[in-house]
Design goal:
Length: 137
């Protein structure tokens, strides 16, 4: 599947998954299972953009369930995909989230570099912008 229909499906799945992740605390098991279902649907689209979103959703699920190592692995993969797709802003947001999740001096450095890059692009509050665009972290 490709073209406008695929793009619409990808965006709808992303929005539904973000809503589920945002409200995960309400009915955790159900919402996380539904988010995982969205990941499977995104993978069926067979587009690299859809794959990157699927990785981000999976990383958010891992973050919510406390699987920090797996979360970091998935975020790294998603960031690599975004760079390959010339999605620089998405890559920087993911690098910022990776820094927050991984923590420590290396994590703080990732956050600072991502903030600096985003501010250079005119984003006044990179933390809020990233939070708005990456649910579940």
């Amino acid at each position: 599947m490709s073209g406008p229909d695929a793009s619409l499906i990808i965006e709808l799945q992303r929005l539904v998954a973000e809503h589920l992740l945002k409200s995960a605390g309400i009915d955790v098991d159900h919402n996380l299972a539904q988010a995982q279902k969205n990941v499977r649907l995104l993978r069926k689209v067979k587009m690299r953009y859809a794959d990157s979103i699927a990785l981000i959703i999976q990383a958010a699920v891992c973050n919510i369930t406390g699987e920090k190592t797996q979360c970091c692995t998935l975020l790294t993969s998603a960031e690599i995909w975004c760079r390959a797709l010339n999605m620089a802003l998405a890559a920087q947001m993911l690098n910022r989230v990776l820094g927050q999740v991984s923590g420590g001096p290396d994590g703080q450095d990732k956050v600072a570099k991502a903030d600096q890059w985003m501010q250079a692009q005119g984003i006044k509050k990179p933390d809020r912008f990233t939070c708005m665009m990456t649910r579940g972290f």
